[in-house]
Amino acid sequence: MHAPGYKADSLASWIDYPEEFAREDPGEFFHIKTLLMNLDHYVNDFRAALFLFHGQFSSGSPSPHQQELFLRWKHIAARDAVITVYNFMQTYVAIKQNIHDQLPIISKTIPSAGHKEINGLIQANFPSFDKLRHGVAHPAEMLATRRGFQKNATKTPYEGLGLKISPGNYVGGHLSDNTFMCMHKGHERRIDITEEKMQKLELIRGKIFALFHKRVGN
């Protein structure tokens, strides 16, 4: 498979941190820098999943078995994208919490409006990312008992994304064009595996990094 245009990036190393950031607690400063670098890794992981999802695996006419294999590869890419988004968001939460708990002087310099804007972008572009991740990561546990199956099955008729499901059924993973969907606690959770989502994740990363970049006049 060829991946023209794929290029990983690393932006955390370009952040010009305020001097007081390192002075307040050098150990925690190193910890936060590591978490910020991890955001780069997750963005690149999502980018790689996007390329795999949209990859062209055969130049000819694939056999039915090959078509089945290629579809499963797309599911692998979609599931990895879901878990990557979750890890990205959880890392942001950890950064915010550790700054608040361990670096109060720095915490006071970060405007609350910045976090509010980031949280708004997350909610608008990756709604229920945590529930989607749970549905992807824990299907065996969710369905291990009859009670669990009933809890995660649809409660009402569902029609969408090429599916028509009666109540009491469960969908562990479904693709429709560029949209991946699974059920969690009886509700549909979905994400688009698209370049637009990639750009939104990059935008959120940029907003997070901007919170820590040395501000003019500091």
Topology:
Elements: H1 19-24, H2 26-53, H3 64-102, H4 104-109, H5 112-125, H6 129-137, H7 139-142, H8 146-152, E1 158-160, E2 163-165, E3 174-176, E4 179-184, E5 187-192, H9 195-212
Antiparallel strand pairs: 1-2, 3-4, 4-5
Mean pLDDT: 89
* Spatial order of strands in the largest sheet: 3-4-5
Low-confidence stretches: none
- Total beta-strand segments: 5
Supply the helix-strand structural class: mainly alpha
Tell me the radius of gyration: 20 Å
Q: What is the CA–CA distance across the termini?
A: 48 Å
Number of helices: 9
- Biggest pleated-sheet summary: 3 strands, antiparallel
What count of domains describes the coordinates?
Answer: 1
Beta-strand share of residues: 5-15%
* Shape category: globular
Helical content band: 55-70%
| Pattern of helices and strands | HHHHHHHHEEEEEH
